[in-house]
Amino acid sequence: MLDRRSFIGTSALGLAAAFAPRMAFAKAATDRRFIFIIQRGAADGLHIVAPVGDPAFAGARGAFAQDFATAPKLDATFALHPALVGVNALYGQKQALFAHAVASPYRDRSHFDGQNVLETGGASAYQLRDGWLNRMLGLLSPGEAKAIAIATAVPMALRGPHEVASYAPSALPQASDDLLQRVSMLYAGDSQLHGLWSEALATRNLTGDLAADNGKTAAATGALAAKLLAPADGARIAMIETGGWDTHANQRGRLAAQLKGLDAMIGALQTGLGPVWADTMVLVATEFGRTVAVNGTGGTDHGTGACAMLLGGAVKGGRVIADWPGLGQGALYENRDLRATMALDGFIAGATAAHFGLPGGRAMAALFPGARGGKAVTGLA
């Protein structure tokens, strides 16, 4: 854990059930791969990377603290939820980094508004009409920015001026090879449809049998993402949506199931990417955290400070970055939430800048124009 003085010098101050994932992909002229996994529903960072070294932790979290009695220690202050077995192995290999007490500029605890701020990179909800991930395409390759969304709708983070196609696995019977060939012949003389059809067939061939899974399991989704990212002419940027993180009740069991799913997805990505994993960075982030206190139904309510992760062979891992504010009652935000001491937009800008060799200031200004002078966190890759 970084001490308060050194941390503030590198960043801006401020910041189960169904695992139902959807994905979005983009192509850029770079050998590096970048994957954004969004945890929709506000994941409880205190129950993922627990500050077991904080004197107030056990009293504040009650029965939740039992999950960390034998959990792997990350350092003297933090321990990792035991469901994240694969992620813990990556941490030991210095391929996993955690940032704690992070938050976007948003503070009003609405899922819809909070996700909009996270995905657009604005200072407030609906301030911007495009997403930071779409804007990043412009930084990477103005002439070759090409995106495909594997979802029923393109996520907000990928919407913007750079064109994004869509692909969604279907539960309908697979089309016969004869039908596909006939359609190809029909479009052969059409200058516009021929190119679009050829691109769709290429994506179909890449996904193979995994498309039949319909993205229902986390591991299959990770494997599908890897299959689209691994080829030399494949995608370079991916977004994976996961749901089920809104744990107002029965959090211990539900969150453990969610984290097992996330762990399986990360493992499938690593396995599927093979040697490309060495040039990959995976960002995991949520719209806001949850309350420090446990509610009457064994869950937590909408909060503020959260936890974010960077995973992959391109990450300078094996550490937790935190200007830890403490869980004592006087230290909480509005007497209920983990106080945010790191700007999530600065963390994301720093990660992408380091990964793609961009100046931190340029990445911050382009991806998060509403940050109002915020700085990119350094030394992440």
Write the layout of secondary structure elements.
Layout: H1 4-8, E1 22-27, E2 33-39, E3 49-50, H2 57-61, E4 79-80, H3 85-92, E5 96-103, H4 111-120, H5 132-140, E6 146-150, E7 164-166, H6 177-187, H7 193-207, H8 218-229, E8 237-242, H9 251-273, E9 280-286, E10 306-311, E11 319-321, E12 342-343, H10 344-356, H11 360-367
Parallel strand pairs: 2-8, 2-9, 5-11, 5-12, 6-7
Antiparallel strand pairs: 1-6, 1-8, 3-4, 5-10, 9-10
Helix pairs in contact: 8-9, 10-11
Q: How many β-strands, per DSSP?
A: 12
Q: Roughly what is the average pLDDT, rounded to an integer?
A: 84
Coarse structural class: alpha/beta
Q: Write the element-wise H/E pattern from the N-terminal end onward.
A: HEEEHEHEHHEEHHHEHEEEEHH
Note the beta-strand portion: 5-15%
Radius of gyration: 21 Å
Please tell me what the overall shape is. Answer: globular
This entry's quaternary arrangement is single chain
Care to describe what's here?
The N terminus is likely disordered. α8 packs parallel to α9 and α10 crosses α11. 31% of the residues lie in helices and 15% in strands. The protein is α/β, with parallel strands linked by helices and 381 residues long.
